[in-house]
Amino acid sequence: SFLPPNYSWDAAYERELQTFQDIGDTGEIWFGEESMVRIIRWLEKNKVPLESSVLDIGTGNGVLLVELAKSGYMNLTGIDYSPSAIQLSEKVREKEGMSNIKLKVEDFLAPSAELSGFDICIDKGTFDAISLDPGDAVGKRKLYVGSLGRVLKPEGLFLITSCNWTKEELLNEFREGFDILEELPTPKFCFGGRIGNSVTALVFQRK
């Protein structure tokens, strides 16, 4: 894994918040530009309506939501359990003048009742982070899948980008209640003569 075991997301976002206040830089984009482009291209190619309600799970600095808004998506919500991340997202949103993006501090493993009825959920690295949690990662993954089933409409879409899990592992994790629609092409890397994927990006549909 690329994160040390005692990694604190809150501390990371507090540093980024400080940096943003000092120099107006949005900080680390955890999965890089190409993963955002991949998601937006897929939505456009599949003519996903611009009024669809979109939830960004673990929005971090909110940059994906800004890019979605620039692409014409109007009904956007970002959640993060880190208040510093949401503060950072709010600053990014203000800088970009995107007042239609809703942002909330929420723990996705125990979502509030109003977090429901979304057409699309997007995850870039949040499921990965939960999976690395030293305290009961298996239980937390189950909670995550349960929450996803609650917040996403039947037949809603779930786009996940992961650098910890293979396609087969993700299919297994989300087999309860979700069907795979498509695997998105991601950069490949070569390790010890074997081609592997550094990143897996899948689109699921809720049954």
From TrEMBL:
The gene is Eef1akmt2. PANTHER family: EEF1A LYSINE METHYLTRANSFERASE 2, PROTEIN-LYSINE N-METHYLTRANSFERASE METTL10. Keywords: Cytoplasm, Methyltransferase, Nucleus, S-adenosyl-L-methionine, Transferase. Gene3D superfamilies: Vaccinia Virus protein VP39. InterPro entries: Efm4/METTL10, Methyltranfer_dom, SAM-dependent_MTases_sf. It comes from Prunella himalayana. This is EFMT2 methyltransferase. Residues 53-181 form the Methyltransferase domain. It catalyses: L-lysyl-[protein] + 3 S-adenosyl-L-methionine = N(6),N(6),N(6)-trimethyl-L-lysyl-[protein] + 3 S-adenosyl-L-homocysteine + 3 H(+). One of its GO terms (molecular function) is protein-lysine N-methyltransferase activity. One of its GO terms (biological process) is methylation. The keyword Nucleus applies. GO terms for cellular component: cytoplasm. The keyword Cytoplasm applies.
